[in-house]
Design goal:
Length: 375
């Protein structure tokens, strides 16, 4: 038998890949009656220095249900960290109620993700995963009305290193500390007045999160976004109190209410998200703006097309605008959009958008393999 020899330098190598597993526990019985398009949002989690989030759709996306494709339990995988070309593999497997992993209810997703101001149409910041249909028998996976989905993530590589990343993932406890600081109403030192309603906060927190609030609270010149009233409160104009409250929640917790929570409070999800995006752009809250863009991309429909496209144009949202044009480049969608009053108003007020739409229709829709909205 021949002796083993050492390999010449450079012909073989080995490297460690970041990999981590999580369990997603969901109250299946309580969510199965949600309307199509409603979702629950998981806490963010980190793998290899990149932050991810899962959106659970108990009845799938609204548009797939409308097209008669059946109701499927789905996940939307979202890359939160601003980074380019992150190659990742996701394995999702249902856990049976006897503790063993299912051999049939398993999905594998391998994709390059990009979260770079939503500029790349070929590298989406998220992807859809259809787990199973509601017609499937799930009794063997239910435990006290819950299902458990194991999620294993492996990072293969990236064109960029996430800011602040290191070999050890930093603790995210500070987010809980800030949330508690806000909820406990401790050491509040500034009051905002929004359409007659008062909100209290901390100057340093507001200034640290938003350069606009930093200028309002500590700048030397007047600000167009806020001014002091006679009572010493900072006047916020052009915004509804409910929108400011959600913006304040994001500033302290890095999160916003999910769709079902808004629906339970009789809040129009589309309208509030559009207003929140405008507020995020006004106060330079980049991550909040990106989160709103992502939600509006997912909720795009015939009725929301025109207002969403105008919003994207007004607030410099290239990914959202591209998603709108892609949606309208489908002849069936365009024929319905053209019959709406909003489309007529759009053509009169924004002729440049109509030219972009015509160009997109001539080019035809993108290949479905490159679309981040396919299930």
């Amino acid at each position: 038998m021949a002796l083993a020899q050492s390999s010449p330098r450079g012909l073989i190598s080995i490297r460690e890949m970041a990999s981590r597993s999580y369990q997603l526990k969901i109250n299946y019985s309580a969510t199965i009656k949600f309307r199509p398009g409603s979702y629950l949002k998981s806490p963010s989690f980190s793998v290899g220095g990149y932050e991810w989030m899962l959106f659970y759709y108990p009845r799938g996306r609204k548009e797939t249900s409308d097209r008669g494709q059946g109701v499927s339990v789905s996940l939307y995988v979202f890359l939160r960290t601003v980074a380019k070309n992150v190659d990742a593999i996701f394995y999702f497997t249902l856990l049976e109620n006897n503790g063993s992993l299912s051999t049939t209810k398993t999905k594998r997703v391998s994709q390059a993700f990009s979260h770079d101001s939503f500029a790349s149409r070929y590298l989406p910041s998220g992807c859809w995963v259809r787990l199973f249909t509601q017609d499937d028998t799930v009794d063997k996976y239910l435990l006290d009305g819950h299902i458990i989905i194991t999620c294993t993530v492996t990072i293969l590589g990236s064109d960029s290193t996430p800011a602040g990343s290191s070999s050890t993932t930093p603790s995210l406890d500070f987010r809980e500390d800030f949330a508690n600081l806000w909820l406990d109403k401790d050491m509040l030192d500034v009051t905002f007045e929004v359409n007659g309603e008062l909100f209290q906060a901390h100057k340093l927190v507001m200034a640290a999160r938003s350069p606009v609030f930093k200028n309002i609270l500590f700048g030397v010149g007047p600000s167009q976004q806020g001014r002091l009233s006679g009572a010493g409160a900072v006047q916020i104009e052009g915004m509804q109190p409910s929108v400011f409250k959600m913006m304040l929640q994001f500033i302290y917790t890095d999160s916003v209410p999910h769709d079902q929570e808004l629906a339970n409070n009789d809040i129009d999800t589309l309208a509030i998200t559009q207003q929140l995006l405008a507020a995020a752009d006004t106060y330079a809250l980049t991550m909040l703006k990106l989160m709103c863009e992502e939600r509006l991309c997912r909720e795009l429909s015939i009725d929301s097309f025109a207002t969403t496209l105008v919003l994207a144009e007004q607030h410099d949202c290239p990914r959202l605008k591209a998603a709108c044009l892609y949606f309208a480049s489908d002849p069936e969608n365009l024929s319905k959009i053209a019959l709406t009053d909003e489309y007529l108003n759009l053509s009169l007020a924004y002729p440049s958008i109509l030219r972009a739409l015509r160009d997109k229709c001539r080019a035809g829709p993108l290949d479905s393999d490159h679309s981040s909205t396919s299930t």
